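Our consortium's second objective concerns turning raw sequence data into structural hypotheses that experimental partners can test. To show how far this objective has progressed, the report includes one record in full. It was chosen at random from the queue rather than selected for favorable results. The single chain below, 397 residues long, was entered without modification.
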Amino acid sequence: MELTRDEEAILRGEKGPRQQECMRILATLGEMYGARKLLPVYSVQLSGISYKTMGSAGTEFLEEMAEGGAKFAVRTTINPAGYDVGGPGLVRTHEDFRAKQDRLVKALMTLGATPTFTCTPYTTEFAPPPGAHLAWAESSAVIYANSVIGAFSNREGAPSALASAVLGKTPDYGLHRPEGRRAQVVVDVDLSKGPMRYTVVGAYLGKILGQRIPYFRGFRPLPDVDAMKELGSSLSAWGAVPMMHVEGVTPEAGKQDLEGLEHLSVDAQIVGEFQKCLGCDESPNLVAIGCPHCTKGELIQIAQAVKQKGRRLKPGTELWVCSNRKVIQENAAAIQVLRQAGAKVIQDTCMVVAPLSEQFPVAAVNSAKASFYMNKKAFSGQKIVFDTTENLVEKYL
């Protein structure tokens, strides 16, 4: 990989040990994957910033970076924290956890992070333009940026995203190059047996595809941006899919020859059978919607379902609706409907990254991504009830 004189100077340590460490990470990645150079990036998205995920070692590393004078060189947005750090204190956690989370957030702010606290940075004022090169580490945001916006990002890990934030660059390989964005499997969607839920389709195919990029044909009507968010987030959670081509939606779809590619097909029967493994039949004490964080359209949909029901939440169950600061601030009418019904509108965190397993051992969700992470013994270990938004409102309100 060819480095500029300035990049070589950083690698030699002439601009300090923190920048040198970051350049070593990017240079090593570049060499591993055959990158020819480093690219400037428009923005970085850091994932795993909940103390539940990062723990003491990660917090101390960020503090050392901040104390050593490191600063982010480009706009760096961040994933949800472990509680609603911006208030009003709706998420109950132990004081010790809050103190540790606050240390982590303080280090990030010192480094220069933008306090978005969301997995949907594309719904904030910091959304990237088409064609922008990014270094994003939130998997559901990566697949959305590549597949809907037409931006370019690999599925970064925590170290590489942090290094890119400090240096403002990323190696030119993978999804940054045209050949790395080509579809590898054609998926024909058969709607003759009925409609399918996008979040379940994504989960089912994620297990099959692994890291391979699918080309979807047959969706009618074409999925809107919220449906693309559902489909992509499940593909990237149940598999490791970094991009999808949806015919008629993805900017690059239709620009490559599909001859010779493997073909798969999905229909309502297959997807319906798979949906049964996403949850159990127990009674939840938490109903949580917003994984990934709710968009404006989803907030309005939930508020309409709640308003139509016309009742307050049943005793013994909490309803969380999770979104980011900007979407919440700009949708006051929907928020008022939800709060009047007894729902908690949660910002800065979500049901996945907050430590909730003791408080809510059984949770109901409408997201296959949430089901995947909350049901994992190594992550949350909760029992999950899985259903549609409308059914969750109907049953528990």
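The partners drew two points from this record. The mean pLDDT is 96. The CA atoms of residues 121 and 127 lie 6 Å apart. Both points have been shared with the crystallography group to help prioritize constructs.
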